[in-house]
Amino acid sequence: MTLEIPAAAALWFLPFALPLCIWVAWSDLRDMRIPNRAVLALAAVFVVVGPLTLPQSVFAWQMLHLVVVLLVGMGLNAAGLLGAGDAKFAAAAAPFVALGDVRFVIALFAANLLAAFITHRLAARSALRRLAPDWQSWTRHTEFPMGLSLGPTLAIYLVLGALWGTTTG
Hints:
Strand order of the largest sheet: 1-2
Helix content: over 70%
């Protein structure tokens, strides 16, 4: 398997993006909110590290991913299909994904979403819930903390990119 993201870029993005992905999952579980600071920090990681690790033309095109995903996310949020924080995080994560890897990332997200949903619902009904009894995600039964899947999807993609991304030379 080879991913289109350059392995070196994924390696550089990973130490900065991984803590943010964990923060997003944690805060969405706890408060059913994805902090704007986490979204802005993730976008800043791409803006700062991207030009150092990607060719200029690739960096520019991938920045366009942010705009496109943000516009789609705004539409989905307006239709009540997606939370605003989820839309903003997806937009901030979009530039990290190489265009040739979009189908792979969609499949990865789908699998991750299913696993996260089942795990969350089982944990909410088990003794594990006592570890964090005040988390909002336990009591909002009609909502799901999408950050629990969005953050790990980006993290997994970057890890896989570091292992199986394209190499130069």
